[in-house]
Amino acid sequence: xxxxxxxxxVSDGTEFDERIRGVAEERIxxxxxxxxxxxxxxIPRTTNGKIQRNALGKSPLGRSIADLR
Length: 69
Prior knowledge:
- By secondary structure, the chain is an alpha+beta fold.
- The protein has a single domain (about 5-60), classed as ANL, C-terminal domain (GMP Synthetase, Chain A, domain 3, 2-Layer Sandwich).
- Helix content is about 15%, strand content about 15%.
- The protein contains one helix and two strands; from the N terminus they run E-H-E.
């Protein structure tokens, strides 16, 4: 099964699609350019400050993002 890079970006509503793709490609490599960018108001966290991956929703593969490790 292939893999797909998806970026979750905390934003105030401003979209930076091309800039995010460019920075990822420049700093990490062309394979890291996100195919999909999802904008969220905030990253859900536990009371201990850890990211609640299961609260982030479904991946493009239909599985919980928490399962994609």
